Amino acid sequence: MIRHSDPAKTRVAIIGGGFSGLGVAIRLLGEGIEDFVLLEKGTQLGGTWRDNTYPGCACDVPSLLYSFSHSPAQWSRVFAEQPEIQRYLLDVAEKKGVMPYVRLRTEVLSMRWDKAAQHWEIETNQGVILAQFIVAGAGPLHEPKIPRIPGHEKFKGTVFHSARWRHDHDLAGRRVAVVGTGSSAIQFVPKIQPTAESVVLFQRTAPWVLPKLDHRYPAIENAAFRYVPGFRRAYRGAIYWILEALQLAQRRPRIMRWLQGIAMRHLRRAVPDPALREQLTPTFTMGCKRLLLSNTYYPAIQQPNVVVTNGLTRIAEDGVVGADGVEHAVDTIVYATGFEVTDPPIAERIVGVSGTTLAEQWGGSPQAYLGTTVEGFPNFFFMVGPNLGNGHSSVFVLIEAQADYIVDALNTLAARGADYVEVRGDVQAEYNERVQEALAGTVWNAGGCSSYYLDRNGRNSTIYPWTTVDLRRRLANFDVQSYRLSAPTSAVDRVLTSDDESATTNYEKSGRALRSAVFAARPMPTETVDNP
Ligand code: NAP
């Protein structure tokens, strides 16, 4: 517990201890910026890799690319499994010296921009923290989404979401309903099927499934990673460019169709029964939803104890009813129904300049500039924000590029003596127009499916339409001309635009003085926080 009457102060508050938050913390330390805290509501760092512990949970991006470029790991296999990834994350946090800055069990309840004081007031379950800047790394795949199925309150059995796996509830010998056939379900269904008494799989939309080119690294490959100079780097580079080519294909549904041929062959080889094959054949263009990789999913769902049916429509006391009206007796329901990607709960907790929440401003369609900054929410940076997602490459490419951008922003502000930065409304609007234009006609928008890429207004607020090469180029330098900068109003009472160079010089001294007095010299009192 924070035990002091004065709120703690910090220059930068990072929210969330997943790979995003960790990436920013490492980057700040690398830049010599130590006046920051990383607030994590859980009892351990890890984000999605701490939370998703379902059987079979593994990466679906080759691990060589699914890691920080500055911290290569000796992965045991091509697609590492959750425990190994979580160990990697904790190991990197320790080795890079991030742990002293971490405040575990600290949940952010609200973040309010204090106009008079020109800083963020962060209310947490451990007390109030004042921060000059916030970097939100809460993650788009954080809050489980559970559909409200009629009758759900009547069910007498056990219910949980795949991202909150109940390890105390052994599924051996159970009659299990699994709702959903996305990335999570296809990984755990083959693991629970052998011991469950029965599995009813509710498939609302048949997914495209490609073979997973996975294997344990043999000794020779491991030796090459360790001893052959440049081998790991070249391997990582090759994966990056192959995935980048896939992105180009995804932008054009017609090109994507040849990849469908590979998936169809995979389905034909694995599923001899024509009726089941038809049921499992997707009706949308591949890439419209996230690509799924598995060699074990089709074999598992053909076992005699598995029934594949359509959407779940009703729940009874001891059973579930599909859209075909058939009732199945079950004692456990596992929702593999994804996450609140386009209605992130954190947006309801952020109150900007005008006194409205970010969720109200977004109205169900998240928008930002470069997925990082939002008009009306000064000194606030998003990690993996709106329209930064990609269905093809590693999130690490994005995390590292964004961390560079944010650190460059902080350095630019410091150099100009500015304490306030807000993206210009016209820049944000024009950028989003271009994003939406580029998305029109792509497989994500026009592939004939519904997915979490599209928000409740039907707008794609998730995907970055261009390559990660393009994204890295855009994020390489903080483009100060796209922002409004100013010193705190108490020191200088007019807002400066970045092209007003003379004014920049005028307020430099007062801005710098105030910043160092209020923030830079006042680190968070580490000893007052319960942080085992
Ligand atoms: P998801 O991709 O959003 O899939 C949700 C599934 O639930 C879909 O099959 C959906 O059906 C179904 N569903 C939702 N509401 C339903 C309802 N009312 N009735 C029946 N079915 C319903 O969720 P996810 O599988 O958890 O994956 C989410 C994301 O997490 C992935 O795209 C990926 O980015 C990430 N992930 C990554 C890995 C990894 O290996 N790195 C592993 C797991 C997850 P429809 O298709 O009909 O909507």
The assigned structural class equals: alpha/beta
Radius of gyration: 24 Å
Estimate percent helicity. Answer: 25-40%
Bound molecules: NADP nicotinamide-adenine-dinucleotide phosphate
Q: Which range does the strand content fall in?
A: 15-25%
Give the oligomeric state of the chains in this entry, treating copies of one chain as homo and distinct chains as hetero.
single chain
Shape assignment? globular
Report on the biggest sheet. Answer: 8 strands, mixed
Total helical elements: 15
N-end to C-end Cα span: 12 Å
Question: Which regions are unreliable across 5 or more consecutive residues at pLDDT < 50?
Answer: 1-5, 489-532
- For the secondary structure, the number of strands is 21
Question: Roughly what is the average pLDDT, rounded to an integer?
Answer: 89
Task: Please characterize this protein's 3D structure.
This protein is of the alpha/beta class and 532 residues long. The protein has 15 helices and 21 strands. The protein has helices spanning 19-30, 48-51, 82-95, 183-192, 219-227, 231-250, 253-270, 274-280, 297-301, 358-362, 395-416, 425-439, 443-446, 468-475, 501-520, and strands at 8-15, 36-39, 102-103, 108-114, 119-124, 127-136, 158-161, 175-179, 198-202, 209-210, 292-293, 306-309, 312-315, 319-322, 327-329, 332-335, 350-351, 380-382, 420-423, 483-486, 496-497. Strands 1, 2, 3, 4, 5, 6, 17 and 18 form an eight-stranded mixed β-sheet that branches. A five-stranded parallel β-sheet has the order 7-16-8-9-12, with helices on one face. Strand 14 (319-322) and strand 15 (327-329) form a beta hairpin. The protein is globular and about 70 Å long. The site of NADP nicotinamide-adenine-dinucleotide phosphate has 25 residues, from helix 4.
